[in-house]
Amino acid sequence: MPVTRASDPPALFEAAGNGDRVALARLLSLIERGGPGSREVARLAYKTPGAAYSVGITGAPGAGKSTLTDRLIAVARRDGFDGGGQVAVLAIDPSSPFSGGAILGDRVRMQSHALDDGVFIRSMATRGHLGGLSLAVPDALRLLSAVGMPVVFLETVGVGQQEVEVAAATDTTVVVVNPGWGDAIQANKAGLLEIADLFVINKADRPNADGTRRDLELMLDLTELGEWRPEIAETVASTGDGVDALWAAIGRHRTHQSERGLIDELRRQRLLREFRQIIAARLDERITDLTDSREFAGVTRSMLSGEIDPYEAADRLLAGVRPDRAGGETDA
Amino acid sequence: MPVTRASDPPALFEAAGNGDRVALARLLSLIERGGPGSREVARLAYKTPGAAYSVGITGAPGAGKSTLTDRLIAVARRDGFDGGGQVAVLAIDPSSPFSGGAILGDRVRMQSHALDDGVFIRSMATRGHLGGLSLAVPDALRLLSAVGMPVVFLETVGVGQQEVEVAAATDTTVVVVNPGWGDAIQANKAGLLEIADLFVINKADRPNADGTRRDLELMLDLTELGEWRPEIAETVASTGDGVDALWAAIGRHRTHQSERGLIDELRRQRLLREFRQIIAARLDERITDLTDSREFAGVTRSMLSGEIDPYEAADRLLAGVRPDRAGGETDA
Fold first, then answer.
1. What is the full DSSP assignment across B244-269?
2. ipTM of the prediction greater than 0.90, yes or no
3. Which of B40, B277, B278 to mutate to test the interface with A (most CBs of A within 10 A)?
């Protein structure tokens, strides 16, 4: 099914819905790139809600997230939640938006699933998307759902603020730690405790996995939890040990949420957060517009000469904001 | 010199300039509190530039920053940069804006300088200041300079994004680490390497100070540096060992900057950044206004029902932004 008009989102969207992976990859590129094309893809995906269940996998660099994701792909492909099916993977590295590293990573990972048409793996960076990854990732997840993916893994690299935010955009968030003193505490400091639905102690054949489990349990004891207490799984991703049990734990969290109708509420909350982020990003664009303006240069001169203070300078500049910039049609 | 009108910034400012410490403390409270009072203090301070040299002291909790600052106060009081003089200290803890901990910390520290009129120590939190600490701290530093303080120490607790930002607002930034494996690497991860003008290995009598120095040197070798390569001092704050040498190193950095005319350029850059932050904070206030509005509720309903996507929702909402909100007179 060759795609005839590569730059036409509706045609690409239809093709992707019929299983065209090249079209799907192009749609994701449009999202990454931002601008009107991205906007159109987002609108199409929003009008066609799918039923994808998304699983975020996050943790410190070196914890073995990629290998673990690779193993989870195989289990999800074979068993799914209600029988095997297609699997999509988004690998996110906010810290290196233009790196060839991500692409290389794709290829390495693709090795074990290269011959499997049912697995779609894509690295994702942001090039020009309004609001960066915080907004590009929800768009991408909705797209993958809209084209019929039943399971989407979202793997993040690093544990910065943005990774935590992005990982929290999934239905189940898995936080990967390793055995060893302090790993659990580092995860807590990085804000991962708050977003974890499940913990995995990967490389659990190494010494002190028990100690890490105790640390995590203690930290959970000290945290105000909802009805769900995060389970703690143990895996050795390199051999595949424990991965089936981890998948089962993910399934239990999914069941917990769907039985209580929590998933809809969760998605509603995420949508509201996204809405706020779009508004924030729009206003942010206007700051950039302002600082590029001729008024900015004049006001800045007055400020640097000591004539007016920075608050007065901001007042003068913002008094010149035209209201019609607010409802602009493009988002990049 | 009793202050007659406690809520009148010009009177307080004049009194503080004549050495009234109660007036100075009240002005800082006004800055913390934000709003028109803060704005007026900022304007007064801006119109009266002083000659304070500011030294930021940052690093992970437990590194011994408070004890070190306490020692530095004594040296700065005795020697200054060009002879002894007054010293002001701002202790910042963004993570606990309302904590009594900060106030307790004051009292503990005050012990060693309680009888010295030449030392002014103040904890600072933000209560309502527009833009939070990122904007309150520059205002406070300008105030302390305007009332004639020659040396101001800014001590931050914690190593979050905001602390790094705040610490970078000083003329010389000192990053405190401890001996031991990984401490230098943690400092690097926290973004402290980028802002450090000087490193101090405090508790240098503990094992592995040499290892930490090697780590730091290596990381500096791997970093693109300007003309100034951060010096690495060693101290034992609890005994005072090395503190004179640290003060001398701070002085060398100051001389380096003043000889090359870098301080003016640095302050110019900071002023521009501050200006941008004020604009950002102003626009941020408008987001809050928007999400409190009746339009927001209506647009949100349409979005959650699937009628419009979040981008469309943002467009509709922002189309209703009134221009006259931009040039508001108050900032809180």
1. HHHHHHHHHHHHHHHHTTHHHHHHHH
2. no
3. B278
